[in-house]
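Could you help me review a protein record that somebody else here produced? What it holds is a sequence and that sequence's fold in token form. I need someone to confirm that the token line plausibly describes how this chain folds. Take the sequence as given and treat only the tokens as open to question. This is what I was given:
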Amino acid sequence: MYRLKGKVCIVSGAAAGIARETAVAFAREGARVQAVDRDAEGLAALASAESGIEAVPLDVTDAEAVRRFHESLDQLDVQVNCAGMVAVGELASCSRADWDRSVTLNMTSVFLMMQSAVKLMLDQGSGSIINIASVISSIGGAPSRFAYGATKAGVIGMTKSVALDYASRGIRCNAICPSAVETPSMTARIEAMKNPQEARAMFSQRQPVGRMAAPREIAELAIYLAGDASAFMTGAAVVMDGGATL
């Protein structure tokens, strides 16, 4: 159907996981994709395997690098902000280093990327920003996820503010709030646990559907939010959790 034909899209964190699948899905829907990540090797493998994807090694926490990147573009229709990290621990055990890293990558990078994107989108009079938040912050919480939950809640707050500020100027901003997703980072966390088999079962059983989400399922929602079919939708924090918060 080529639902994104002619659109230029940025996807951050695109070397792996949800963002990688989103970059691939966007390209298959006809978009020209700028795949952004600090992992240059992972990006190169993605770009060589998929047509319509250009690899852009970039540290999304570097304000000057982000500014230069956006200024190099003459069109920007969609930006997906997916780069992030999961710090494990409750309030009492959260180190200042984990807090600062979580804020920098989960929130500051989103702020920098959106601020630069909006300048381009205002010139065009249109654009869609999609932020990957989490069900841990939208309507639910999780144990030992203090810094993660706090920063992802911040992403939802930024999403709603941007949506209100720019709705009348053609720019939409929405957030996707997944529960557990079968990504390489999730697999690494599971494998690092004392009993990986029990851990996998625990993560799967948190969802009434009995499994974790596949990255491609999150990518399908991103396609909808990126495309013209969702033109009346802005400021939403869309929960996609297999029934976990029902």
The chain has a mean pLDDT of 94. The two ends are 33 Å apart (CA to CA). DSSP finds nine helices and seven strands in the chain. Strands lie at 8-12, 32-37, 53-57, 78-81, 127-132, 171-178, 237-240.
